[in-house]
Amino acid sequence: MTEIPALIAAFTTMFIIMDPPGLAPVFIALTQGMPAAQRRAIAVRACVVSAGLMLLFLGLGEAVLGFIGISMDAFRIAGGILLFLTALDMLFQKRQARREENAAEGQAEHHDDPSVFPLALPLIVGPGAITTIILLAGQAEGMADFAAISAVLLAVLSITFLSFLAAPAIERALGKTGLNIVTRVLGMLLAALAVQFVLDGLRGFGIGG
Questions:
Q1: How confident is the model at residue 25 (pLDDT cuts 50, 70, 90)?
Q2: Closest by CA position to 75, among listed 203, 198, 207, 192
Q3: In principle, which of 50, 90, 111, 193 could form an S-S bond with 187, CB 3.0–4.6 Å?
């Protein structure tokens, strides 16, 4: 996992799952009318909480699977299928609509501070991100690997934080059409990565070579 190609693959997967450009307009909607200082504070809290959740799942996710008797190969297959469904949602623009719906619900319940819900959970650290983190943890073989994966997670989260700060500029630059194109391209890449997870899981069971 400390090899550069593996780290690039991990970064790409997490970036596609978390989709910082796609989160930018949701962040704008949740913080509409707030002063810049309050927006920055919400972005910081959301990313700090998300980092804690990610590291928690990275450290304990595989232990929980072992406790309930699920092998990593079985989880790879199930996780790959779930990621593929996420990719389909991205390709057909269902994912962004669901995010905006969750954001609207969270804004109604927590008008003053949406940093924990719905920003950190489930918008940043959603089911797809949790699944991917546990899959990456299953590929780790030592503390160096866990440190490398942690660095990848924090790197993607840092990009998410920067996208929050630059959300108004990103929205103006890309426009609705640009965001749709980016989402669909990322969806295609995620679909291919999901298939690879399934193939790796099947290979673990001795199927397909």
A1: confident
A2: 198
A3: 90
